[in-house]
Design a protein that fits this description.
The protein is of the alpha+beta class and about 170 residues long. It is built from five helices and five strands. Helix content is about 30%, strand content about 20%. Strands 1, 2, 3, 4 and 5 form a five-stranded mixed beta sheet that branches. Helix 1 packs across helix 2 and helix 3 packs across helix 4.
Length: about 170
């Protein structure tokens, strides 16, 4: 999934690609996020796969808002996604919430996280619900993780993305 589909031709080998609507796992650093009924183009020659994701800013907003509203504690991946959604570096986020940059790093460590205190977690949730998010999503910010937590399914329509819990 590296190059863009141009005129339905594979970016890698220029072979005509065919597309179909599918449900796909969205690799955004949060486990268990599925995009419902999105266009997926496949190259019959080299196997390249391209996913068409409309309204990416609205998609990230839907994910961040759903995370902010979920009951239970936030995990390291959720904290990192929400911070990144807000467009904050770990240093900027640390200054906003009144902690050390190293503390933010420990909040986001998957192998040995420092649990975020309940007041700080409430502040992060409120920031997501009330502040304007980042307007660009560089590919470097998207990480590939295997699903582990609750499943999340998102579907797009003309109004944007909507969350529907997986059965």
């Amino acid at each position: 999934m590296s190059k863009k589909v141009i005129d339905n031709r594979c970016g890698a080998c220029r072979t005509e690609m065919s597309g179909a609507r599918e449900n796909v796992r969205y690799e955004c650093g949060i486990d268990g996020v599925t995009l419902v009924n999105v266009m997926v183009y496949r190259c019959p020659n080299c196997g390249e796969r391209e996913i068409e994701i409309p309204y990416v800013e609205k998609l990230h907003r839907a994910i961040a808002m759903d995370l902010a509203r979920q009951p239970g504690r936030l995990g390291p991946k959720e904290i990192r996604f929400m911070r990144t959604y807000l467009g904050l570096s770990s240093g900027d986020f640390a200054r906003k919430i009144g902690v050390d940059k190293a503390t933010v790093s420990r909040y986001e460590r998957v192998d040995s996280p420092l649990p975020m205190g309940p007041q700080t977690e409430r502040l992060l949730r409120l920031m997501v619900m009330s502040e304007k998010p980042v307007e660009e999503y560089p590919i470097e910010r998207v990480t590939k993780q295997k699903p582990k937590h609750a499943q999340m399914r998102l579907e797009a329509d003309k109004k944007g993305w909507h969350v529907a819990r997986a059965a």
